[in-house]
Amino acid sequence: MNDSDLTRLSRLIALLTILQTKRTVTAAELANRFLVSTRTIYRDIRTLESAGIPIVTQEGKGYSMLEGYRLPPVMFTREEAIALLTAEKLASRLTDVATAQLNAAAMDKLRAALRLSDRDHLEVVAPYIQVMEPGSASDRPNAYQQLITAITAHHVVCIGYLAAETGEPTIRYIEPIGLYLSQHWHVIAFCRLRMAFRNFRLDRITSVVVSDELFSARTETLQQYWNNEAERRNKEKVVIRFNPSMVLPAQVQHLHDTKHQYGWEYEEILRDGSLELLFFVGSLPYLATWLLPFAGAVKIVEPESLGEHLSMLARQAYNAFVHKEFETGPIKRV
């Protein structure tokens, strides 16, 4: 068997896997996936059909496997098994307890399908892969898995939620449309209390009850939410880190008293005691004038251009108050 035959055999096996995991897939999608022509995909599909694989061609939609037909599991490569082991580690730390348990159960099934040598290899590798942040989710409600269920089934969810600024507990009835992970997991949902879409952090959710009430499927998606937010705000995202120990307590208080005037959105305390603050601002120079007095206590995470504005202001201050004094000599006091 030459290299060309091996390449085609690998592609046919991969085609079988895709057909079993996707409801429908087009020839164009498969051609892009394998970097071949659609004519090659047509030929591969005919080869699979001639081998007795029941592939259904849906006019104008693509290909699918006959409902109920399954092939024996394809053996995983060692690299694929390690990738899934990594996913298990991430799920155990970055989702909730219920999801971590489901992921672990799936990994047990994967291990059962592995060769003994590969199974032993995973046991050896596992201790060398650790996810240390953001810490165990064991003390959080099983919000992630319940919200996923509610999103797909369009169920209204009642959540207990702690307000970002005050920590005041509230009860919200929400219609969730999606989840995303940044520093924390968030759920985007239509809030019936505010009658608008809102962004809820899962670590601030104290309780979750998925009700029997159904809501009408919404056309909004996560991407549309981001686009709408960008249009509504027409502002730039800014992330800074602030070390309160580097300035006077009065300056720390001033920062918290005035941050709302500069587009502050939310903040979190990092492990070293510093604060990471998120802003949406319409003018970077305007924000820079506010940040300059906190020099030495502020680190710019993004965008880099904010640092340029601060550098320019610092040079102007130096030229006006320090450099000029060196040119003229110290001011004599009377």
TrEMBL record:
Keyword NADP: no
Pfam annotation, one family: HTH_11
Keyword Mitochondrion: no
GO MF annotation, one: DNA-binding transcription factor activity
Gene3D superfamilies in the cross-refs: Winged helix-like DNA-binding domain superfamily/Winged helix DNA-binding domain
Keywords: Transcription, Transcription regulation
Source superkingdom: Bacteria
Matching SUPFAM superfamilies: Winged helix' DNA-binding domain
HTH deoR-type domain: residues covered: 8-63
InterPro entries attached to this UniProt entry: CBASS_pafABC_assoc_protein (IPR051534), DeoR_HTH (IPR001034), HTH_11 (IPR013196), PafC-like (IPR028349), WCX_dom (IPR057727), WH-like_DNA-bd_sf (IPR036388), WH_DNA-bd_sf (IPR036390), WYL_dom (IPR026881)
Protein name (record): YafY family transcriptional regulator
Organism: Dyadobacter chenhuakuii
